[in-house]
Design goal:
- By secondary structure, the protein is an alpha/beta fold.
- Among the domains are: 11-175, 3-Layer(aba) Sandwich (Rossmann fold), CATH 3.40.50; 476-572, GMP Synthetase, Chain A, domain 3.
- A hairpin with a 5-residue loop joins strand 22 (467-468) and strand 23 (474-475).
- Pfam families: AMP-binding, AMP-binding_C_3.
- This is Long-chain fatty acid--CoA ligase.
Length: 574
């Protein structure tokens, strides 16, 4: 098909325009009642119009914030599109959030309405709302819990509301590209999440940058397997709007434990993942290999070695090329078959992907493409290309994205993809969006350090102290450390975990409390969502001014301390 160059001012305008073009084409596939169910574009548009009319009839209007808490299922993008179509602002929120997390987001965003998938999640949202001052409206896909002083409704009531698709499309098409589409909360320096204000133009700019790649891969009509949370900025943009708009069918996974079956069942053309998933998949492949004969293990190892040589050199000789061609049939085709046999792009984002890990899959003929981005940039900044893939980099910037390196090495980004700022936080906005010294044009200061080589961006370090785990989650170590040091058993604490599956803690026990620090860790973990919990901990010697690991204001010098105690940290990972 001929891909549209765009021209839509808002995301709902794009989605409803596509629904008019593709009314009978499948849009979403999801597991329900023991079978896969399909929702077509035309049905999607009707449901969006109904939900929009329902929300408007209950006082939701332009500029209002609506919290959206749901697993990956069709109700999420239907609600998301309906909220935006009437000029309101979606606030996607993780299903794993604690009540305190919901309370902060409700309080900070000022959201007075929430759409929630399950009764259990609704109860957690209401618990947070009680701390934040309440809600006016709750819509639950399941039967909603009772809540005094608040209007609560089932999703079926919203779908039963009469809506006008054409009128809603016209309204969305008349809205401004700079109007806010969503507030996505990301960790702040003090540990409290900040609301990133993403206008419609930012997500549409991401789409425009990826369309040339999609055209060359001919992805129209092919399935995309979605399992990263739609509340995450990456999946919200890519799986929620970008890939559907270029004609891909979005298939919602039943969960990570079912992925192996779904690869074979769905045979996806595109999969997006975080590095942690690649670690798991490699582990499964190697564990299965251990059960095979010595001959099969030898063939696998040889296929892997020759694949790496094709990428990194030295060039293969004639005999090697013959062996490589044979091993393509004997080994690599079988590995690709485990992923469904027609994967054209395995895109990794959210955290640094170790080149050895990506090289493992690429040597076996799987197109692993590392990308780079952050919520403040819509979120995709750059991505490698299947035909020009440099695994030690995060690829060239998307079309329409400007990247440069500041004097201190920080990666700066400019373009339509950049956020408006942080909600209710002008100081943080000014720090993130500012001109470099001596200039007047504003750039997004990413907090990452990198270099640009031959047009390819390579991230070398993080300027900020946030920890990005192997799963792509952003965690503020200051928040976890402060909770630990509030416990009587803990004198000092240092959190580490950059690029690891979870957090670890080095703890300086309070006097006489060496045997009780485990109790403190358990109490702190009970207060934290899963991604912020401490997996391993160990006692360590004090951080002092004399050993150079403490500032005069009694703050631990994080980077120096992590380097100085690297051996102790690595021991916790075994």
């Amino acid at each position: 098909m001929a891909y549209s160059a765009g021209g839509w001012p808002t995301l709902p305008a794009m989605m409803l325009a596509r629904a008019a073009e593709w009314a009978d084409r499948p849009l979403f596939r999801h597991w329900q009642g023991g079978a896969w169910r399909s929702l077509r574009w035309g049905e999607f548009a009707i449901q969006v119009a109904s939900v929009a009319a329902f929300l408007r009839a209950r006082g939701v209007g332009p500029g209002d914030r609506v919290m959206l808490v749901s697993e990956n299922r069709p109700e999420f993008p239907i609600a998301d599109t309906a909220i935006m179509a009437i000029g309101a602002i979606t606030v996607p929120t993780y299903t794993t959030n604690l009540a305190a997390d919901h309370a902060h987001i409700l309080r900070d965003s000022g959201a007075r309405a929430a759409i929630v998938s399950t009764r259990k999640l609704a109860e957690k949202v209401l618990e947070g709302a009680a701390l934040a001052g309440g809600l006016d409206l709750l819509v639950c896909v399941d039967e909603p819990p009772d809540a005094a002083g608040m209007a609560s409704h089932r999703w079926d009531e919203a779908l039963a509301t009469a809506g006008d698709v054409a009128a809603l499309h016209a309204e969305a098409a008349a809205a401004a590209p700079d109007s806010l589409a969503c507030l996505i909360y990301t960790s702040g320096t003090g540990g409290l999440p900040k609301g990133v204000m993403l206008p419609h133009r930012a997500l549409l700019a991401n789409r425009a940058g990826v369309v040339p790649l999609a055209q060359r891969l001919d992805l129209d009509g092919k399935p995309y397997l979605s399992f990263l949370p739609l509340s995450h900025s990456y999946e919200h943009t890519v799986g929620g709007f970008l890939l559907p708009s270029i004609g891909m069918e979005v298939v919602y996974s039943r969960g990570a434990d079912r992925l192996s079956h779904e690869f074979a069942e769905i045979r996806p053309a595109v999969i997006t993942a975080v590095p942690r998933l690649f670690e798991v998949l490699r582990g499964r492949i190697l564990a299965g290999l251990e059960k095979e004969s010595a001959l099969k293990r030898g063939l696998f190892d040889r296929a892997h070695a020759l694949g790496l040589r094709r990428m990194d050199g030295p060039p293969l000789g004639l005999l090697d090329r013959i062996q490589d061609a044979v091993l393509e049939r004997l080994v690599r085709e079988k590995v690709r078959a485990r992923f469904g046999g027609r994967v054209q792009a395995l895109v990794s984002g959210g955290a640094r992907l170790d080149p050895d890990l990506s090289g493992f899959f690429m040597a076996l003929g799987l197109p692993v493409l590392q990308g780079y981005g952050q919520t403040e940039a819509g979120p995709v900044v750059s991505v490698n290309l299947p035909w020009a893939n440099r695994r030690h980099t995060v690829g060239p910037p998307l079309t329409g994205v400007e990247c440069r390196i500041a004097e201190d090495g920080e990666v700066l980004v400019r373009g339509e993809l950049v956020m408006t700022g942080y909600w209710n936080n002008p100081e943080a906005t000014e720090a993130a969006l500012k001109p470099p010294p001596g200039e007047t044009e504003h750039w997004l200061h990413t907090g990452d350090v990198g270099v640009i080589e031959d047009g390819y961006l390579r991230i070398t370090d993080r300027k900020r102290d946030f920890i990005k785990t192997l799963g792509g989650d952003m965690v503020s170590p200051a928040k976890v450390e402060s909770l630990l040091m509030a416990e009587p058993e803990v004198h000092q604490a240092l959190i580490a975990g950059e690029g690891k599956p979870a957090l670890v803690a080095l703890i300086v026990p309070a006097e006489g409390m060496e045997a009780k620090i485990g109790e403190a860790v358990r109490r702190v973990n009970a207060k934290l969502p899963t991604i912020e919990r401490i997996r391993h901990f160990a006692a360590t010697e004090p951080f002092t001014i004399d050993n150079g690991l403490l500032t005069p204001t009694m703050k631990v010098k994080r980077r120096m301390a992590i380097e100085a105690r690297a051996g102790e940290i690595e021991k916790m990972w075994g």
